[in-house]
Here is the input.
Amino acid sequence: MEIFLSADTWLALLTLCFLEIVLGIDNIIFISIVSNKLPEELRPKARNTGLALAMIVRIGFLLGITWIIGFTQPLFTVPANWIMASALDVSGRDLILGFGGMFLIAKSTMEINHEMEGSDEDEEGENGEKKSSVTMSGTIVQIVLLDIIFSFDSILTAVGIVDRDKVIIMILAVIVSIIVMMFFSGTISRFMQQHPSMEVLALGFLILIGFMLFLEALHYIVPKGYIYFAIAFSMLIELTNIRVRKKRNLKSKPVKLNKPFSEEEMKDAVKDLNK
Here is the structure.
């Protein structure tokens, strides 16, 4: 525990916590959207269980840090062709990011289609209420799988900041970031449910992030700062639109309904029509 007596250790821990939380924003958005498909009483349990399992998986990755770094070694080489001007060395990390990016694009596209057109996921119950066919186990599996995809980049980033022999610092950063996700995921989930336009915007960003992951698998590096700036700016504009709509709704006067006609007035009206 002597490492915690050093100021550099605490600086590295704070830096890692900040990076884990920032890199986990897209994860929180996905978790909120997926968990909203469940009945309301099951959503917190699904979010917290999925994040707890994701934390265990991340800690396992960190304990096997040498194995994770081995994923960056080339597995095979794709020769140059009419699509690629030069040969491409494909590693395990590239395969995970590529398939993960395609999964994120496909899942987000299906969710947008569900928002626009509806789907067969919502069935009518006995009392005419909508009954979701989405299961909690399926939701938890999606949360864990996506967290594995996103955790590769964050773990490799952590290795670049902290020495490999200080794994305890990386584990503490993961625990702190997951606790923060658990704390805010419910609030974000409720906010998106109340504002469907924000949910569609978030799904659009998940498609963008999926495309970025796919490009990264092909060794085309897109600066993440541009992506996160676009997300933050668009979210700010949409939040402004939400406030403007609320003010307009408050200023608009409610429709006044006329009092129903009495029987005598109805008879008089009929007599006037018959004249």
